[in-house]
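Notes on consecutive records. When two proteins share a document, each keeps its own sequence and its own token line. Never mix them. Below: protein one.
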Amino acid sequence: MARGPESKRRRLSPPGDGEAARSKADEEWDVEQDYERRPRKTTKKAGESARLPIKTSEGFVQAEVENEVEDQGEETDSFLGTDDDEDEEEENEEESEEEQPKIPVKVQIIQAKEELAKMATLINEEPEEHTSLFKTMAEMVSKKNTCVTVKKLALASQAAIYKDVIPGYRIRPLSEEDKTGRVSKEVRKLRDFEQALVAGYRNYVQTLGVLAKGSKDGSIDLSLRSFAIAMACTMLLAVPHFNFRSELLKILVNRLARRQVDADYVKCRDTLEDVFAQDNDGTVSLEAVALIAKMMKARDFHIHPSLLDTFLHLRLLGEFHLKGSQDRVDRQEEEHVGKKPKQKREFRTKRERKVVKERKEVEKDMRVAEAVVSHEQRDKNQAETLKLVFGLYFRILKLRLPPLMGPVLEGLAKYSHLINQDFFGDLLEALKDLINHAEREEMGEEGDQEVTREENEDEDEATIVETAARDARRRTLLCTVTAFALLEGQEASKAAAGLHLDLNFFIKHLYRSLYSLAMNPEVEFNPDTSLRLADPNFSSDATQLAQSRSKNRVNFQTPMVLLLRCLQPTLLSRAHGNPPPARLGSFSKRLMTTSLQLPEKSALATLALMGQVSKYHGRRISSLWHTEERKGDGVFNPRANDIEATNVFAGTVWEGELLRRHYCPQVREAAIDIEKMMNNSK
């Protein structure tokens, strides 16, 4: 078989033998190396490109010149920069920033919305994997060149995300043992997420505090400041259990420390009221009241009176002690009523059944123990809160600050049944002094008209005197309500004989003030309602300012409601036994007289009270409705200030005949019903 052509072999050594051939090859190698190591001399001009042209469909195109900064970076072999290079780089960055075109505000807002939406979506989907986005969203607020709208969007987005991500428990800081201890991968991942969440939330709350505080130079926009306060209120309502609650409360209390009432003030005040109403264990309420008390003492009680009205929304000790219903049973939602559905029974051995039974008993005991502890902690918190509130009330009563007397008396009237009986005597003496002071102020003999003039500089003398008289009347009614409320609750009525509580002073004052209250044109209006139109000669701002300054100090019940609250225990309460006939007759005669002057609704309320009096004490006062059964001798004195000096049984209730011809049909029916009960009680 023919053999194929042999492959050509390469010669590995130069021809010739000996060292001469090797030395010649080495010399040639050295020459090449010397040539290779020589520096190149390029004749390239500035801006000239050494790249080959690119072939396109239109022909050959020369490649563009690269950036000089990149060429310089390629020529330098050192990776350690000098100070001069850093300065040049900073200058180049500043120049590049200046050369960047300005983006319109609308475009910035649209871009910010898209970025925030993407980040929020990522955080909500996997919060443990995107903890770095908390810092990215915070940087959008801290940048100086960012417009105000973008900052508001970033703050609102962070608030929405934190409300979704924050757990239902408080995160504690890690100790040294926790950091050095060995834990599983899942636990470490959860700890890292919690610490990142706490750090981001801390930064967010601090940012809100800085923005809400504002700046003297005006660098912080006013709208951004109001928005930060609103976000603080939102977070306090949404997550009151989480960390940095004290910082959020400080933001609200600092705004409430100012006497200027605007939208931010109202927002903070309403937020505190909601927090007090929703607080079950009393921890948040105790912390908030402590901060408010500290702020009031630091400012010497120079605050707006409406701040004290927030205490009326507290959930204090007597709220949860309710009577159970006698006609129905409140069942828990988990409890199944009726026949239980069949369930597949799981096979268990005797030992397993015993273990399950013991476990259920232990769990039941644990639930009972936790409930007892929670109730004890709640009562303790509410007791401390009540102590702080009463401390503020008594201090204001001692200082006798006119702008704050109304809210303080309103609070004492609500929580007076929770006051210790040892303080009843001192409190009644303080209330008597307030009534005497208010009577002199109403008569114009003395008062705090100088303080009122300083507060109401835009009002005339007549308006100032009228406002002072109206406030004095309300304060006297509140003092009387508080005095009667002291006997309610805590079995104070049983201990009244031992305490020697004398309420005749308040009853006599109430009797004297019936005529003046009946002639009050604002008897059916709360203090926030104005009966007078605004002056068209004044500007709108001045009119609103005058109306806000002329408002009363108490923003809740009308004078007629307060009067009925005082008359109810005076005529119907049996705390000190049955009322004497002289008191019943004098009040009945004067109430029927005042019903002729009162408006329709107030007259109906007064006659309804008289209907109850005639139902329970009709036989003792029926002689006033029948002339032939007159018991008294002498002349009836309708203007006497003392109940005993009126000689009421020498007169008759002739006002019933006029009330039977009243323009309101309901008033006529009420007067006829009272007369029928009096005829039946002979």
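Protein two starts on the next line and is unrelated to protein one.
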Amino acid sequence: MVSFLDFSLLRDLFSILLLQVSMWGSDSFLVISPSEPIVAMLGTDTMLPCHVLPAMSAENMELRWFRSEFSEAVYVYQDGMEQVGEQLVDFKGRAELVKDSITEGRVSVKIYSLRISDSGIYTCFFKKGSDFQEATLELKVIGLGSGPRVFIVGPEDTGIRLTCTGKGWFPQPEVQWKDATGEKISSLSEVETQDDDGLFQIEASLIVRDSSKREVSCYMKNPFFGQEQVETISIPESFFPRTSPWMAAFAGTFLILGIFLGAAVFWAWKERQEKRRQWEALTEKEKESKTKELLEKELARRKQLYQQNWRKAKLYADWRKEQFEAVAVILDPNKAHPNLILSENRKQVSLMENTPENCDASVYQGQGESETIFSVLGQNCFTTGRHYWEIEVNIGTEVGPETRWAVGVCSNTVNRDGWFVESPEKGFWVITYNKGVLTSPIESLSLRQCPQRIGVFLDCEDRDVSFYNMVDGSHIYSFTGITFYGAVCPYLSLQGAGTSVTVCSASGYTENYPESSPKTHLRSDMDVPQEANSLLPP
């Protein structure tokens, strides 16, 4: 075990040394922040520290601490001085830059008189020239309120009612009752409220019925620090009510009568509920049948309208497939990079193990250096007609910043030697996944999650290439008004350990129907029938 820890430590030190050596002689740097949350008491002052690695002067850098958005500035330092124009009102006069070690790249923002609202995630942003980096850190503000106060409310329900109160706590404290032996007692009720400053006030109640538990303690504990406060109260024995023998006999007789009466009422209620459930089930079944029938009619009507104007509707990939010819794409081993592995049926492609990973293509594009893009073409090439196929991407469990893939089409005359630019100007019409973001050649695609099954629709007649998420049928992106030079072939490229791409059988995929009311995607269009407008995307 010790040898393993020593090896891990040496490996981390070696990685840091390599990072520093790679940064010597350049302006590149990293921003480092505390990995553990910064915990501070309410009303005190605290520091939010960040520093650059390797060490360098930050006097001429732009420094910014902000909350969830870049514009929500806590503190801004630029051109050697504080900039208050973008600073949030809550931090004006309460934030100060501590720059005693700014020449070494170590700076902190000091926040005075902490409030509960100051808790949360902060980002420190360092910019030097065109290079910038950022790091996040968490601040937790806690308040240790007034200690618990225990009061005897009075006799209640054959026992003594106690209350334990506390105020000025943050976060909400944990309350626990215990007897003299340390045994825990469950609270009867707990009521929590927050004042205008966000501080918690709490009141817990307990009824003590056992006269042997005459000494009871109330504990309040802060869940962050584990620090707790306690108050103990002793209940005089005379406070406990005394029960006479005849009262006990009367209570037993009343209990038996109550049980018989309750049983009779229960059976009558149960029979009535059973009849009601049967009636509700029958009504619900009839309602579901009518709803299903109406839905099927509505889907048929919408599909008919969609087919009249499908070129203008960017929704419903499964309906769009009816206008295109499904293609069984076969990958061409003669047009595959040597570092790619094709399956026996030539439907799947993956990257050969121990293949050197390329750097970000955008970096090398600016520097003019040559790197390799691992790509393959399909044997199927097209000059006319409408065709579609489906691609499934699996990035495995080893996804990292070097993971990258692209799918689409390209001209069969493009140059794919070494590193090249996958853009329409070069004869490529693709969407690309890079560093966790799906992009087109001109913009990032704002998707809630990266699709794993993608439909590629090639329309040679209307000069259009469109991409769809085949899981939910949503539209991803379209290239329109394309001028094709020669034949167009299916195109794939990938990079990153564990990544593979599979050409799926389009005809065997389960059809996804649109929602019964797609009005959230609707708009009017002057050049189509009015009723069909409801199927066109905004």
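For the record: The chain has three domains: 25-142, 149-239, 317-535.
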